[in-house]
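Newbie here. two chains, one complex. Structure please?
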Amino acid sequence: MHVLVIGAAGMIGRKLVERLAASPSALGGEIGRLTLADAVAPVVPAALRSVTTALTFDLAAPGTAPSLIEGRPDVIFHLAAIVSGEAETDFDKGYAVNLEGTRALFEAIRREGQREPYRPRVLFASSIAVFGAPFPEIIGPDFFTTPLTSYGTQKAIAELLLADYSRRGIFDGVGIRLPTICIRPGAPNKAASGFFSNILREPLAGKEAVLPVGEDVRHWFASPRSAVGFFIHAATMDTSAIGPRRNLTMPGLSATVGEEIEALRRVAGDKAVSLIRREPDPVITGIVAGWPTNFDASRAMALGFRAETVFDEIIRIHVEDELGGRLP
Amino acid sequence: MHVLVIGAAGMIGRKLVERLAASPSALGGEIGRLTLADAVAPVVPAALRSVTTALTFDLAAPGTAPSLIEGRPDVIFHLAAIVSGEAETDFDKGYAVNLEGTRALFEAIRREGQREPYRPRVLFASSIAVFGAPFPEIIGPDFFTTPLTSYGTQKAIAELLLADYSRRGIFDGVGIRLPTICIRPGAPNKAASGFFSNILREPLAGKEAVLPVGEDVRHWFASPRSAVGFFIHAATMDTSAIGPRRNLTMPGLSATVGEEIEALRRVAGDKAVSLIRREPDPVITGIVAGWPTNFDASRAMALGFRAETVFDEIIRIHVEDELGGRLP
């Protein structure tokens, strides 16, 4: 089996590759070839070094997509994207990579299939950014996509392309609408959503964290481990059960900031919670007010996708996967 | 005012241009310049001959979109498309014109605005083909777009682009999701939807027509006159009332084939109805079974869009506009 991971150096890409290295039959067959591609050099896992090729590429550049596809990968994870903030400030770059790069990839698959029959499985990382406020209290499986960012627009367009190319039999695609990933590993970042992870990750490492919003702010979460699980499941499931509606809102956990904090208290104690410093920020509060808070993910659940159901579990996964099981 | 009509030789394009010729202030100001563009030569109306330029173009060809925009039209009607059947059989052509051509047009507007401030009104002809079965009994204003054709996919993508470019202030766009237009003038065509018009237009001209489906088949209609009215209204309305959800399901009339026939009987008598020959066609019946039957168009109605509310009116409009008021 030849597996291609586009966006292999990103947070989910790295964790997906680590999972494939740890469980080489996770995709249901031996990985005979692994191609890792990203705009920055991907890390090659030791366990798969002998079968891995790492490429540094620009998905928007002419020729990149055909060169990724000429090796006829059986399973393609398309995780590469210009992220939300950058796609908003750099209009051309966001459209070039997120729309045209994705379309070039899909077209390269089609051209390869015209040369010789070919129908790979394609797993596409979409986002709840395809939705735009105002929202119902719970966003149902047939709610429309009216994104309020260029990033969300590009993801929604890629979803439509994925569904049409799949309907045409060009590839066998599944669009994975990811919840906000929590706890994001690494250093605190300036993303407006960063605090959802910061207020857990930093205290768990014995450090202070800033909470810029009120405790009643509600949002939609899944752990990095679940995110990897979504892609593995989508790569191995029987897609005939999906039908033509190929883009699925993944399951997640709807929780308030207050619930996050109480879970932290249960897992790591009052001392950890005392490291959260409240510094209300009206700009971040305003941005977050336009975000979705809860979804009906019953369609994805019926298709076998699973995420955490209590916040304590999200915290425990971080402690296990990032802190070697050690609490502060 | 400089007005550009892209797709001016199509059915709605021709009728829109006729309306502008008959009511030169329909757009709220004098038309000082009218540019008509289409893949086939557009008809220039006598009343506007002195201010009209007619162009034959390929929207997908490099340079076409900038050449249409360099004259900085104030109002742009984008009606050009590879139609449903052809977009399904010619994958490349459908994507080249309906997706890439539309994006090239939107980009040309952006580039022109970077050169010198420019923000035209853009009216885009979308379609209920953005929706895909299964449907609820009434498709609400927040139902998702899961098209089952490449044409519907391309229209749904263009809608997303229109909303994002409008949100960015690049132009002031409105997407007009047209109902099935009835009664389509001209000769009977082979489109699966043709019979909805054929069974009225042909008997009104004293000719036989074939009905391939049962009388209980329900669908969603508006007259060509209403379609032109939608575009005129969208060109002149206060768009600040729309908000970021720029694509609107137009009002229409939900009616069964049986209701069409009874309206024909009321307007033109039993003799006209007797010209309808029933020839059940399981293929057409199957195709039509996957089409939407009814919409909640309250959003567009609240914004001032209007269509027919009884089928008799749709027939009378055809008699007035196409038959000089004469019944058979």
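Moderator note: The radius of gyration of chain B is 20 Å. The mean pLDDT of chain B is 96. Thread marked as resolved.
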